[in-house]
Amino acid sequence: MGKASPNRQTQDKSRGDTKPCEPLIRCLKILHEALNVSSLSAMVSRLEIMAKQRGMGSHLSPTETTCYLTADMFYLEVLLLPGGEVEDVKLAQHGEAPVSSESLLQLLKSKKFEEFSVKLKGLSSLYNIPGDNETKIKVYTALQFLGKDLQKISHLPRALRECNLQVDMILNGRIGYLTAGSEGIPMTIQYYISPSDILLEMSDSERGSIGQLALVTVGPSDSTHRLQMASVIPQPPQLDAQGLPLFSPLCEVLSEMMPACFQLKLQPPLPMLSSFVEKLSQITDVAIADADLQWAPFPQLMMTLLGENGGKKTWDGQDAHFLVPLPGKEIHSYVLPGAAWEEAALRGTLMSTIPFTHPAHVPALLELLRHQCAINTLLASCITSLRPSPGPVCDLYCEVLPESGSSLSVTFHLSDSDSLSVLLVNVADSRKLTCSLFAVGSESMDEYVSRVLKRCMSIPVTMRALNRRLSKRTCGEPLPACSATISTADVSPASPLPMSCEADGSLSSGSGLESIGIPTTSSTAAVFSQDAMGTDTTATAAESAFCLSVAEVNTNPTANPYPCASVCVYSQWMHNNHLPELI
């Protein structure tokens, strides 16, 4: 007889051997406890592993009821129950008493260990300074006083420009919309938000913060800098002509030289023109190492950040051609000529970290960042994933040319005209945008176009409104006076747009709102409905329907949009305006 196969022998043995494999069962039990963290020892083991991953120490109290996760500058107390459940988590920053942390407690209770580990990493990064513990303590103290002074500046009284208080703080606040740091998350400044971002927040109330953010941190420096070790805002505070506080010179308050500097970490990184990068150093007097910057043509940076470069990593110098779909069944064509955008003065870099040494620098830095954001928002409105393809006929053909670091021109051709028209857009700062129209029969339209652009911050939407106005004028139709009222039929999205153009492949049909990056929800549908946006809507109702206020254009010239732009800020500030002690 032949031998039984190995598989048959194994089956017979398994049937006859009823005694369990004790080592295997023990291993399975240990793995089950580790995965489910269903015992005290399993929870302690998991905490010890996370601490070791983040370069921290750990030990268990003699009573085995508290697990300590320790670092040089802070520690955590994790109070445990006999079954391995977490009763409380307390965080003790340097020199402070332990304070219960509800967010850290909930992470451990929910067994979200990866997120808890990220929190540990954030706490450790607050002290990411080379040197001994004494140096780290001094740097952390300086960061604490900086944060307190920024909060004082944020609370200073000022005139409101927007009806939405949070939007007003973001766009116009001296320190933007400030969120105090806690539990490993640094102080956060939201300093810019576009009209489309505002609508995204309206459509999804649970959506996290969008727009441009800056984290207030501290980092190592190749050279030493004098940093504050006390508040530099005297009491009672005094205000200068711009409504900013008068700071005490660092030589008159407690301060020390340290191998570190404060930092604004931009999220996401911001494409900045070379001229704006130079202004950063002029404001802070802290050099930004050119070796850390990677320069590229500005459209390439925008396309890379927006993910619309079709996988290309370099700008080939050719013309960039985009199709922009708009509600109302319109498609615009926008060309960015490669030769014009290749000039050295128009090269830029992605800025992620801005060093500074004094709270006086922050308002000026934010104004400069907002200025750059306004330029980026306008340029980004012309960049999409849609490329020309046979078939669709565009309603408007435009060429976007740079005129300077803060101005651009849009050359376009009306279908019923034999001549070219040019719209010159000048961005003096984030709040002062002016347009000059050079076209036949365009008298007295500059103010109207400027107000439309300020309201939507979109070149295609502005060109759509302008094209309609000029077409009506060419046809001899009566037009309302170009006053403060802007027809929502000109600037508002309307009906869904059928798509038939190429998007680096193919693009299925979708609604007009989705085509410009706004998800279709019940709230946005109500905002952009035809009833809400009808041409007969009154000015008051129109603004209410669009949910964006149109502030009066400030036509007064701005002598210096960055009033704090210098380290020598103390000498030119006025010492005559006293502010009651509100801080």
UniProtKB/TrEMBL annotation:
Signal peptide: none annotated. The keyword Transcription regulation applies. GO terms for molecular function: nuclear retinoic acid receptor binding; nuclear thyroid hormone receptor binding; nuclear vitamin D receptor binding; transcription coregulator activity. Residues 26-383 form the Mediator complex subunit Med1 domain. Pfam families: Med1. One of its GO terms (cellular component) is mediator complex. Keywords: Activator, Nucleus, Transcription, Transcription regulation. One of its GO terms (biological process) is positive regulation of transcription by RNA polymerase II. It comes from the Eukaryota. It is found in: Nucleus. The keyword ATP-binding does not apply. Component of the Mediator complex, a coactivator involved in the regulated transcription of nearly all RNA polymerase II-dependent genes. Mediator functions as a bridge to convey information from gene-specific regulatory proteins to the basal RNA polymerase II transcription machinery. Mediator is recruited to promoters by direct interactions with regulatory proteins and serves as a scaffold for the assembly of a functional preinitiation complex with RNA polymerase II and the general transcription factors. Belongs to the Mediator complex subunit 1 family. This is Mediator of RNA polymerase II transcription subunit 1.
